[in-house]
Design brief:
The protein is an alpha/beta fold. It contains 10 helices and 8 strands. The strands form 2 sheets. Strands 1, 2, 3, 6, 7 and 8 form a 6-stranded parallel β-sheet that branches. It has a two-stranded parallel sheet with strand order 4-5. The termini are far apart. 27% of the residues are buried.
Length: 314
Amino acid sequence: MTADADQTTPGRRTVLRLAAALGATTAVGLFAVDRFASPDGTPPRAPAAASPTASPPAGPAAGPAPGAVPAAVPDGVAVPGAAGPQAAAGQAGAAGYRLQPMTAYTPPRFRRALPPVRVRPFLQVAPAGRTMVLTFDDGPDPRYTPAILDTLRRHRVRAMFFLCGEMADAHPDLVRRAAAEGHVLGNHSWSHPLIPSLRPSRIRGELGRTSEVVERLTGAAPLWYRAPFGAWNKHSFEIGAELGMEPLAWTVDTLDWTEPGADAIVGRVRAGAAPGVVVLSHDAGGDRSGTVAALDRYLPELLDSGYRLTVPRR
C-alpha cells in the first residue's frame, strides 16, 4: 500500500463530516427523549394548559332512541362528555390519548330487544308436554324463602320468584341464592301498591327501582313482571315493556294468602294441575308456613305424575 492511499481526498472528508454531524444530532435527540421519559418507559404527561376548558361541539347531543332502555354503566366508571380519540386528544394532547384505556374501543354491551306492549298478561306457558310453572310472590322473606329454596333444590326444580324491591333490598343474600340456584327472578313492584291507583311516574318508580336492585344484586335485570293483586293497567303494560319485561299472571291461585292451611293449598294444586299451568303462591306477606308445608307434599306428587316443573324462556 502506497502513502497516497492513506490520505483522504477533500471530497471524502466532506462526506465524513456530514455523516458525523447527522449522527450527533440523532444521538442528542434520542438522549433528550430518554431523559424526559419515566423510569418505566411511560411517556410523560402533557403539562396542564392555561387556556379554559374546550366547549362541547355544536349541534344536538347524541342519545338513545326514543323508548330505548339506556345502557347501564358500571359503578365507578366515568362517562366522558365526548367519545373517541379525537375528543381525548383535544383535551389531553397526544400523551393523554396514548393513555386512554382500551375499554374505550370495546363493543357496546349487548341489549335484548324490547318486548311489545301487551294489552293483557300471559296466563299460562305454551303446554309443551306436561309442563307447569311454580311462582312465588312478595319475597324474599328469611322466615319462609330458604325452606322453599331447599325443597326446590332437593327435587331439582326451578321456579319463578316475583320479588318486591324493598324485600329484595333488605335480604340481598336470598336474592343472590335464588339466582345462583337457577330460579327466574321477576319484578313485583317495590312496595306492593295497587298499580291502577298510581300516576305513571309512580308506576315507573315502583318497577324501575325494583329492576335496578335485582340487576345490582345478580347482574341481570328481570325479564318478567307481575302486578300486585293482579291489577294491571295501560301504563303498567307500557312501562313494563320499556323496562324490557313481559307481564305474567297465573292460571291457578292457591289462595295461600288467605292462610287456609297446607291441606287446602295441596288440594287446589292437585285440582288445577294441567299442561301449561302457572301456579301462584307466596313466600312472604303473612304466615306462609302452610305454603312451605304444601310445597313439600305436592311437588313430589307432580313429578311422580310425569309433570316437568320448568320456567318460561325469553
